[in-house]
Write a structure and sequence with these properties.
By secondary structure, the chain is mostly helical. It has one domain. Helix content is 72%, strand content 2%. It has nine helices and two strands; from the N terminus they run αββαααααααα. Strand 1 and strand 2 form a beta hairpin. Helix 1 runs antiparallel to helix 3 and helix 4 packs across helix 9.
């Protein structure tokens, strides 16, 4: 892969995710949504409204990854850890997981089998397309065409696979604490724009605590499995490339 293509990828990750967040915040203020009778026309509420979603957290993490690698590519003043395969595997895993969850919910919504968040307005839909379709696709393509160090499967499982769960732990802990505070200290918590449970499918008060707990545990398991699978696949692809290059028969 040439340097221009790699740089384009890092610039995209550095600019597009935060631009999407800022775009929706501005739109929420100018054209506020009506969510159970409440509005998001105040800046503080619009920001809090955004950061309840895992997608926003993934976008921020992706932006940090893009900026760090952009700086390293141009100036090489950051340690090699930022450009290693396992870091890219984490970014690809989180991007793929949030895209998979959203698109599965979208299909269920389209078939009339469930609900989906953030499809109420045109700017919600535009941002969703960029976050859940375009950027994850670019990341996945880059993952399989870029040349980075490889990590054998056993080493990855032992040393790196669990690192993907740190992000899930931080976000899920934040959301549980956030829900607890809203329910216990916010008047009329079921009818406000902050929403104690941003995902309709994981609202324990309407879907049951069993499904809520199952959803959280499943996210941990799916994230780990996807990261391990991605590392296995990239090793397989690299071996195939090496096989063809050396004309081994």
């Amino acid at each position: 892969m040439n340097k221009k293509t790699e740089k384009f990828f890092y610039i995209w990750l550095s600019i597009m995710p935060p631009l999407g967040i800022l775009f929706e915040i501005i739109c929420l203020i100018i054209w506020p949504e009506t969510l159970e009778g409440k509005k998001t026309s105040y800046f503080d509420i619009a920001v809090m409204y955004e950061f309840r979603y895992a997608t926003i957290w993934v976008s921020v993490f992706t932006m940090v990854y893009g900026i760090l690698n952009w700086i390293k590519l141009d100036h090489n003043i950051i340690g090699d850890w930022v450009a290693r395969r396992n870091f890219l595997t984490t970014i690809t895993t989180l991007s793929f997981v949030e895209s998979l969850v959203y698109n599965s919910a979208f299909v269920a919504y389209y078939l009339g089998l469930g609900e989906i968040a953030s499809v109420e307005t045109w700017y919600n839909i535009l941002k969703a397309v960029m976050e859940h379709f375009v950027t994850p696709t670019i990341i996945l393509i880059f993952y399989f065409i870029c040349k980075k160090n490889t990590v054998d499967n056993k080493t990855y499982i032992k040393k790196y696979s669990w690192l993907n769960l740190i992000f899930i732990f931080i976000y899920s802990t934040y959301m549980i604490f956030r829900s607890f505070m809203i329910i216990n200290f916010f008047e009329d918590w079921e009818n406000n724009s902050l929403m104690a449970f941003p995902y309709p499918q994981l609202n324990p008060y309407t879907k049951g605590w069993g499904l809520y707990i199952f959803g959280i545990i499943s996210t941990y398991i799916a994230t780990w499995l996807i990261s391990v699978t991605l590392n296995f696949l990239i090793n397989y692809v690299d071996k195939k490339k090496l096989y063809k290059k050396n004309n081994v028969k």
